[in-house]
């Protein structure tokens, strides 16, 4: 029927769309792809304060959360630390989501009985 043909076309379009929007498997992969656009401190004068390694910015959110030794470190190491924190947060969030889903299922089962 005509409807089936239209549905098939729609599905193809959607699948094609999914193929073109490439999801990142990890923060590392995203950085590997967009790394060129990220300016590391020290390489340029227009540095975002959030990843700046200067001590004159105590308000930096990364600084407050970092419980790292304050040994003289290069911007690259510091940047990697930030990435590790992000990855840890993502993993944590995934775990939380999974636990919430499990709890939801348990609630549904309890209500069904």
Major beta-sheet overview: none
Class computed from helices, strands and strand pairing? mainly alpha
Report the portion of residues in β strands: under 5%
Shape: flat
C-alpha Rg, in Å? 22 Å
Unreliable spans are 14-21, 43-49
Classify the helix fraction into a percent range.
Answer: 55-70%
- Work out the helix count: 4
Mean model confidence by pLDDT: 66
The secondary-structure element order is HHHH
Please give the number of β-strands.
0
- First-residue to last-residue Cα separation: 43 Å
Organism: Noccaea caerulescens
Biased composition (Basic and acidic residues): 1-20
Biased composition (Polar residues): 41-70
Region (Disordered): 1-22, 41-77
How do the strands and helices of this protein lay out in sequence?
Blueprint: H1 2-20, H2 27-34, H3 61-65, H4 75-112
Offer a quick outline of the entry.
Residues 1-20 have a biased composition (Basic and acidic residues). This protein is 62% helix and 0% strand.
Could you name the key traits of this structure?
WEB family protein; 113 residues; 4 helices; 62% helix
């Amino acid at each position: 029927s005509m409807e089936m043909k239209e549905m098939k076309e729609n599905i193809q379009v959607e699948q094609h769309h999914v193929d073109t929007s490439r999801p990142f498997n990890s923060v590392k992969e995203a950085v590997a792809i967009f790394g060129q656009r990220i300016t590391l401190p020290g390489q340029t004068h227009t540095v975002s304060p959030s990843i700046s390694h200067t001590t004159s910015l105590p308000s930096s959110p990364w600084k407050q959360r970092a419980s790292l030794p304050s040994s003289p470190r290069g911007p690259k190491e510091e940047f990697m630390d930030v990435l590790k924190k992000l990855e840890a947060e993502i993993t944590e969030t995934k775990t939380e989501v999974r636990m919430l889903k499990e709890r939801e299922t348990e609630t549904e089962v309890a209500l069904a009985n």
